[in-house]
Amino acid sequence: MGLLDGKVALITGGARGMGAAHVRLFLQEGARVVFGDVLEEEGKALAEESGATFVRHDVTSTEEWARAVGTATEAYGKLDVLVNNAGILKFRRIHDMSPEDFDRVIDVNLKGTWLGIKSVIAPMKAAGRGAIVNISSVEGFIGAEGLSAYAASKFGVRGITKSAARELARFKIRVNSVHPGAINTSMVMNPDLMAEVDGDAFLSSMVIKRFAKPVEVSHVVAFLASDRSSYCTGSEFTVDGGLLTGAGY
What we know:
Elements: E1 8-12, H1 17-28, E2 32-37, H2 40-50, E3 53-56, H3 62-76, E4 81-84, H4 99-127, E5 130-135, H5 148-168, E6 173-180, H6 191-196, H7 199-204, H8 214-225, E7 236-239
Parallel strand pairs: 1-2, 1-4, 2-3, 4-5, 5-6, 6-7
Helix pairs in contact: 1-8, 3-4, 4-5
Keywords: NAD, Oxidoreductase
Enzyme class: oxidoreductase
GO molecular function, one term: glucose 1-dehydrogenase [NAD(P)+] activity
């Protein structure tokens, strides 16, 4: 018996990194998975490797949201789970960041999450229940130099999660957020970001003194997508190795 047997899941930003880890674990746990990304070559390769269904998906586009949701419901007859995983990070201090770069981060990370929730309400209502997992960040609790747009978007994801949880509980749709810390992915290892970070000081601030594997986040996401988390909604789950314990939160 898998944790997600019988579930149909849509995962955004699933072509690589943490998203790809979600895709693989969901399949292992018995889910039927459709995943989207703008990275078409990587997406097609993962689909061929894993057996999941890939669809090109720009999360800022209402039309592409309709296509992604339609792909899942047409292939499997329903949609039970949405993982709003797609996200981007641009490291720029406020003085140096263009309004266009700020808008792009907000559009993908925040508006994309909102559009995802909006897009799956109808099929989840039709299914009689659902689970939405929004991937935020520890930057949704604390700020860091050079990450004003990213932090703003991830704080916003927390707020959308709580509002959606209240709105959708009547339809048996649960909405929770996951807040990863230092995860070993290409986005976190962004050269502009790493050039500005004191690696030794950052590592010493952790309680568990290592970067996490992406699948360590996926296990929490899978739990929240499953019926075992049936009494969890509007909640925030940190996967940060204890990073926030010393951050004044």
